[in-house]
C-alpha cells in the first residue's frame, strides 16, 4: 500500500494561491484602474473632496484633469537604489500610474483647488451650479 504524498496538499494550495494572484479582477477597483495611488473620496456639503496618497512623487510628475464628473490623476513614481546595490527585497512600487474616478455630480472645473503637502494630494471639487437642484415655485 502506497502512502499519499504529504506535500501534495501544500502544492495544491500554492497553485491555488498563484492562480488567485494572477487573476485580473484583483487589479480592478471601483475605477478599474488599479489600487495605486490609494485614495478616499468624500462629500462635504454640496462638494466633494479627494485625498490621494502619493509618497515620493514630486508635483512636476503629476497630471490632474477634470471633465464633467470624472477626475483623472496620472504620474510616475521612481524608486532609486544606490549604485551597485544588491537588491534583497522590493516592496515599493515604481512606474507610471493613471487613475480615473467618477463622482455622482458634475464638477465646476474652473473652481477646482488642489493642495499637495508631504506626499498627500487633496482635491477640492465644487459642484457645478448647473448641476445643483433648483426649487420650482408653483403659480
Uncertain segments are 25-33
**Strand and helix order:** HEEEEEEE
Mean pLDDT over the residues: 84
Helix/strand/pairing class, anyone? Answer: mainly beta
What's the main sheet like?
4 strands, antiparallel
Question: What fold name stands as the CATH topology of the domain at 28-78 and 95-131?
Answer: Immunoglobulin-like
Q: Number of helix segments?
A: 1
Radius of gyration: 23 Å
Into which percent range does the helicity of residues fall?
10-25%
Bin the strand percentage: 25-35%
Assigned CATH class of the domain at 28-78 and 95-131: Mainly Beta
What does this structure look like?
- Helices cover about 10% and strands about 35% of the residues.
- With about 140 residues, it is mostly beta strands.
- The chain has a domain at about 30-80 and about 95-130: Immunoglobulin-like (Sandwich).
- The strands form two sheets. Strands 1-2-7-6 form a four-stranded antiparallel β-sheet, with no helix packed on it.
- It is flat, with a radius of gyration of 23 Å.
- The relative contact order is 0.19.
List the main descriptive attributes of the protein structure presented here:
139 residues; 1 helix; Immunoglobulin-like; four-stranded antiparallel beta sheet; 11% helix; 7 strands; mainly beta
Topology:
Blueprint: H1 8-22, E1 39-44, E2 47-53, E3 62-67, E4 70-77, E5 95-102, E6 113-117, E7 120-125
Antiparallel strand pairs: 1-2, 2-7, 3-4, 4-5, 6-7
Amino acid at each position: 500500500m502506497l502512502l499519499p504524498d504529504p506535500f501534495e496538499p501544500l502544492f495544491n494550495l500554492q497553485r491555488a494561491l498563484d492562480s488567485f494572484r494572477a487573476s485580473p479582477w484583483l487589479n480592478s477597483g471601483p475605477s478599474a484602474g488599479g489600487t495605486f495611488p490609494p485614495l478616499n473620496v468624500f462629500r462635504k456639503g454640496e462638494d466633494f473632496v479627494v485625498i490621494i496618497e502619493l509618497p515620493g512623487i514630486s508635483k512636476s510628475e503629476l497630471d490632474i484633469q477634470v471633465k464633467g464628473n470624472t477626475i483623472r490623476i496620472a504620474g510616475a513614481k521612481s524608486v532609486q537604489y544606490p549604485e551597485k546595490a544588491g537588491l534583497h527585497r522590493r516592496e515599493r512600487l515604481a512606474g507610471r500610474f493613471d487613475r480615473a474616478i467618477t463622482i455622482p455630480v458634475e464638477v465646476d472645473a474652473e473652481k477646482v483647488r488642489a493642495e499637495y503637502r508631504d506626499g498627500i494630494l487633496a482635491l477640492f471639487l465644487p459642484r457645478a451650479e448647473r448641476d445643483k437642484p433648483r426649487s420650482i415655485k408653483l403659480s
